[in-house]
User: Fold this.
Amino acid sequence: MVDHSKLHILGAGPAGLAAGYYAKKNNISFKIYESSNQVGGNCKTIKDGQFSYDTGAHRFHDKYDEITTEIKHFMGDELKEVNAPSQIYRKGEMIDFPLNFYSILKNLDKTTIYKIFIENFNNLFIRNNKYNDFKNYAYQLYGKTLSELFLINYTEKLWGSPAHELDIKVSGNRLKNLNITSLIKQLIFNSQKVNHLDGSFYYPVYGFGTIFERIKDSFDHTSIYYNTTITKLYHNDSRITKITTGHNIIENIEKVVSTLPINILINALDPPPPIEISDIVNSIQYRNLYLCIIYLDTPNFTKNASIYFPESIYPFTRIYEPKNRSSKMAPNDKTCIVIEIPYSPDFLLPPLKEEQVFSMTRDILIDNELIDDEQIIGHKVIDLKYAYPILKIDSEKKLDNVFSFLSGFKNLYTIGRSAQFSYLHIHDIFKQADLLIKKLK
Ligand SMILES: Cc1cc2nc3c(=O)[nH]c(=O)nc-3n(C[C@H](O)[C@H](O)[C@H](O)COP(=O)(O)OP(=O)(O)OC[C@H]3O[C@@H](n4cnc5c(N)ncnc54)[C@H](O)[C@@H]3O)c2cc1C
Assistant:
């Protein structure tokens, strides 16, 4: 197959579609190759009868003005600002999240509160060390007690590794208001409002994944090849010359933007890269998620956008209720909840069957009196691969060698979460795509 498009984009997840979006805006011809039969990657909205839900609790973060303006522009009235609280479930109690002075006073015993304040007060006078592991970073910022109660256990469950082995980047920006200064500010100014990722955010009324559906709809219908798995990228003289997708060969390649997981890209190169490069990408790991969706015959599960489960006794990290982000996601008298269960592939054990995931989740929710068996009217289980790149303290340094090797190619570029093995969000991905396309113009 000879294609005269200037840009060949591998993958139709958020990164691939953002690249296509800016290519179109800049009049650059492109084709997108996607192994599945739909767009959106790990960021889809799934419709099942009367219910809709996203593949995990997504919200749009208003971090870069120009990107928010861009999304508002093509989503129009469909993008709404949502105000929905979140909570933490601990020892059978719901605690407001982000943590605030009042929720700490209300939910923890006096000795624990005392310890938290002493540790955080002492931290004010300790010279800041530059820790690069999550455990010491959390201790330094929030003190040992608060960290152990809410951060370390949650982080280890989500990323599947001991906190002292994880890079501080796994924290995202989530817990920046936990420190003593903001707690005291809340006390003095009697304000429970904190500027935080949770609470207020943008969300499309028909689900987060519609951002990518709308982008796809704006493309010429021949722009995306579905069910097209990239198998090999042939190169010569530091240029990608041919790409194979099963039995098809795409020739006449000008520029390639890969959004494929970095291990897939490196292993598809022909001739293969130096062995040390393959060894690095074969040693890094991604965390997967089972999403257990339970349909309930009740108008609401809670009022929360998300509920976090830091305790290690629960296999899940978060439950999200789509209806609390947009009323269009479920009928008035019913709701559904999406439970996120992180896991790492274990090559020695067979993967859990869908029914096992569901019955384990259902039993825990019933035992904790969070749902009644009679309310359940259906369920689904989704296995989401490549959900999180497991960022260990040495990952970035190791991957520098891989990206430096890739930068030797004159016509190959990578963007996106799995492609860059970086904890990126949608606003970051749009920004990357915008910058890359400007560079390629
Ligand atoms: C539970 C959860 C919650 C999240 N919440 C938020 C949030 O609130 N806000 C936010 O901004 N972000 C959030 N994110 C992050 C966001 O979903 C990701 O950043 C985004 O999906 C990454 O997009 P991507 O295109 O880089 O990768 P992906 O979504 O993984 O897309 C890659 C695409 O490449 C395709 N592909 C793979 N291999 C091949 C091949 N060989 N040939 C052809 N195609 C291939 C895949 O099928 C897929 O479509 C969340 C993620 C998760 C998992």
About this structure: The chain is about 35% helix and 25% strand. The domain at 7-41+207-283+392-440 is CATH 3.50.50.60 (FAD/NAD(P)-binding domain).
